[in-house]
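Dock NAI; give full complex structure.
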Amino acid sequence: MAPGASYRIASIPGDGIGPEVVGATIQVVEKLAKKLGTFEIEFTHIPWGTDYYKEHGRYVPEDALDTLRGFDAILFGAVGAPDVPDHISLWGLLLAIRGPLQLYANVRPVRTFPGTKSPLAAAAGGIDWVLVRENSEGEYSGQGGRSHLHQPWETATEVAIFTRVGIERIIRFAFETARSRPRRHLTVVTKSNSMRNGMVLWDEIAAEVAKDFPDVTWDKMLVDAMTVRMVSKPQSLDTIVGTNLHMDILSDLAAALAGSIGVAPSSNLDPTRKNPSLFEPVHGSAFDITGKGVANPVATFWSAAEMLSWLGEKKAAETLMSCVEDVCEDGIVTPDLGGTSNTQGVVDAVCQLIESLASPPVSKVVYH
Ligand code: NAI
Ligand code: MG
């Protein structure tokens, strides 16, 4: 930990419950920084989202990327509104940042959290996985088009792009992630039986990169069979890597199998560190509970812990997670986890615990 380090964070709360969970997280992180006294952190509010879109006709201004490059990291809430098609809001804001900033590694730790319970009988002891999603190309490259508009033979193509560079860098990152965890095991997910071009290239590159990691065991799964293995043999998995589309789907399944989407965090990383990385909860803007003050802030707390760890503040990240775990274990949780607390109630409990710390405790989550 660099003593006296100081970080500038771009806060983009976005839509729906985004402002509620990001606001909650800023309170907790500011409290933590003040208590520990080992680093400074400053959040700058950036108002991009659907309100901004309705006013300006676009989700982000033209110089958005330059603005973001002036920060050390980005804390993001959610994007999406009931009266704007989802592909407009998603491409307008989140995908407008992820691609150009080359945040090519989407990392989603999935763990059965205190206060949650895996619905799987086979995972009575809980789940502990890290999912690594290719985040810059593949099925979400935006390639394709529509022809013969409004004719009975109207046609649309959606072309997946897989590049050697893109595949190799994410598989290498996944092997490194696997190596940093006690199990040292990686599962590579493809669909190379029916998709015989891009997916076969994935298989070939995985076998090549694996040679550089003799200390990591690895196996391959077809994505359909992978859903079965996640449910029936959850303990056989540790680190998992796959394409943009496959891991989008598998990570929602993983969060549900672990216990709840309300606690699931994600990191969008530029492992080269040329650009600021973006940290956000897995969940969306949750219109059904927006404004009620009951959104679960834990997914965003955990995302902020991942952010602190990425910035080099591993002790602070562990301290934050330890306090959040203790509060959840005490049953101070929001209604989605069966509790009766509201968002601010969880914030207050975590802040109180941080305030009461004599010396930072050790979390069950260890940041490597
Ligand atoms: P969602 O994640 O917003 O909500 C799904 C269900 O989970 C809802 O019942 C919601 O109340 C509940 N939920 C989600 N987060 C919660 C939390 N923190 N605390 C308690 N309950 C929570 O997914 P949905 O409904 O499919 O999408 C709503 C909007 O969000 C759409 O516009 C969608 O495009 C957008 N979205 C945005 C994402 C992002 O910004 N990264 C990710 C997923 C969806
Ligand atoms: Mg998703």
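Observed: The chain has a mean pLDDT of 94.
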